[in-house]
Amino acid sequence: MRVPNSVVLPVGTHVDCCQEEEVAEKTRDIMARITAMLAERKSNLAHFIDNLEGSEEPKFYVDQWERLKEMENCTLTILNLVAVNCTDHRDIKKLEATILEHVKNEELFPEVIRVLPPVYRQVEAAIVDIAQSEEVADHGMMDLQYLLSKLSQRKHLASLGRELLQDILRYLHRIGLVVWYEEIKHLESTVFLQPTFLITMFKVSVGIRTIYSAEPKL
Questions:
Q1: I want to staple 22 with a disulfide (CB 3.0 to 4.6 A). Which of 18, 81, 98, 134 is the partner?
Q2: 190 and 178 Cβ atoms separated by less than 8 Å
Q3: Which ranges of 4-19 does DSSP label H, i.e. alpha helix?
Q4: How far apart are CA 196 and CA 176, in angstroms?
Q5: Kind of pairing between the strands at 11-12 and 82-83
Q6: Partners of 12 in the beta sheet?
């Protein structure tokens, strides 16, 4: 809801636990709930904006007003829900095909036909090679400047600059090849070359907190 021109594909799982008529009924219910949620969001935003504009000192709330207007202008396209049985490989392939079909839709994704500069692919291949090398620890954490120096050692990337690398890392972050939290000050100089390790750490951390919170308190 906070990303401009977002496209959301709702996916309903556990189809194997439902009768065919239940799947259709639940699909309609979910889509109706989503529609109602979006309508409520639009109404709430308009209400908050009106309150700020009607306040006695609106100039004190300019920053809040601008953030709310940005959110109000963020369009959100909701696609038809796909119901799948996660225990059936054919359903997983059906979901995959549906996603690819939508992604190739130029009306939904106008930039889908954009051709990336060759250097993007070169840096991507080099990062994959570095991530798989023995010199990189299992956690895959690497300082941004050190990564730049490693990439620059390659002949075809000798002229790679920090600004271009950051642009490429944003792209690689979006496609899930690396994780780079540039918006977090304490992490902006760290690139995670092994996203799967980071996901595992998150899962372990959440699991520990869940177990701890479930313990009876004396």
A1: 18
A2: no
A3: none
A4: 10
A5: parallel
A6: 83
Q: Among residues 94, 45, 31, 101, which one has the least CA distance to residue 73?
A: 45
Structure tokens at 155: 């002949």
Instruction: Give residues with Cβ within 8 angstroms of 75, minimum separation 6.
Output: 4, 5, 6
- Number of neighbours of residue 108 by Cβ within 10 angstroms: 13
Token code pair at residue 110: 């106008």
Tokens of 133: 């090398």
Tokens of 39: 């309508």
DSSP H helices, 73-194, are 89-103, 118-131, 144-152, 162-174
| Helix (H), strand (E) at residue 76 | strand 76-78
pTM, 2 dp = 0.52
Give the pLDDT of the chain (218 residues) as one tens digit per residue. 666 678 999 999 999 999 988 999 999 999 999 999 989 988 988 888 888 888 777 777 788 888 888 777 777 889 999 999 999 999 999 999 999 999 888 888 876 667 789 999 999 999 999 988 877 777 788 999 999 999 999 999 999 999 999 999 999 998 889 999 888 888 899 999 988 877 777 676 666 555 555 555 55
Both tokens assigned to 59 = 């100039």
